[in-house]
Design goal:
The chain is built from 11 helices and 3 strands; from the N terminus they run H-E-H-H-E-E-H-H-H-H-H-H-H-H. The longest helix has 24 residues, at about 80-100. It has a 3-stranded antiparallel β-sheet. A hairpin with a 3-residue loop joins strand 2 (about 65) and strand 3 (about 70-75). About 70% of the residues lie in helices and about 5% in strands. The chain is elongated. The termini are far apart.
Length: about 220
């Protein structure tokens, strides 16, 4: 019998998860300097995997690298930035949802239904537990990415992905997940219902209502 040997995750992957968890639980504040030497000592790892993890986090929009100054946690979005981001989302996402509704497959429905279930399960506890907030954060990300991919237009999908880092930054630092999750759950369900019905107009309208709701909650 072949003996099973657990696969050890690369240290860079572990550091990515550690730092992301610190962002989620608030122990790393927006705009905080991320000194690699200090992080290396604090986390008891070499600087190389930390640099790899920070470079990956930079692509998410949650970390910024400044010339001659190193890395820094991204700042909280200004009201103007939030409004501009949502304008871009309103141009793209209702169209993506409508196109996805025309191309629904059972596999797609199974996957997106799981994200809605995970999203709803996180609702009651997302304010207080960073791990549960992480479930919400990932479920929301997967929900929107699945729709973008299912739309069948690689140009629109690429345009949405280009916003991905800033959307992640908005999710994490705008506190939308804490103040608006109870409202966002039925909005996700409305989009899912329209997708199941293969109703392109209803899917687009539900997505528009969801994004407009997010704007209202974040700027309230």
């Amino acid at each position: 019998m072949t003996e099973y040997t657990p696969v050890r995750r690369p240290i860079a992957d572990q550091m990515y998860e550690v730092l992301l968890g610190q962002f989620m639980n608030g122990s790393r504040a927006p705009s905080e300097t991320l000194n690699i030497g200090a992080l290396s000592r604090e986390l008891n790892v070499s600087q190389t995997p930390l640099r790899e993890a920070l470079a990956r986090l930079e692509h998410t929009g949650l970390v910024r690298r400044e010339a001659l100054r190193g890395y820094r946690v991204a700042p909280i979005m200004s009201r103007a930035e939030i409004a501009q981001l949502m304008d871009a989302r309103l141009l793209l996402e209702p169209k993506l949802a409508g196109e996805a509704a025309k191309r629904v497959s059972q596999e797609f429905l199974n996957e997106i239904n799981q994200t809605v279930s995970d999203f709803a399960a996180a609702e009651a506890r997302a304010d207080n537990e960073s791990e549960t907030f992480g479930v919400y954060w990932n479920a929301d990300h997967q929900f929107h990415m699945l729709i973008a991919a299912q739309a069948g237009n690689p140009f629109l999908e690429t345009a949405y992905q280009a916003l991905g880092g800033q959307i992640q930054r908005f999710r994490l630092f705008s506190k939308m997940g804490h103040t608006g999750l109870s409202a966002a759950v039925p909005e996700h369900q409305a989009i899912l219902d329209a997708l199941k019905a293969r109703d392109a107009d209803a899917a687009g309208d539900a997505m528009r209502a969801h994004i407009e709701g997010a704007i209202e909650r974040s700027l309230r």
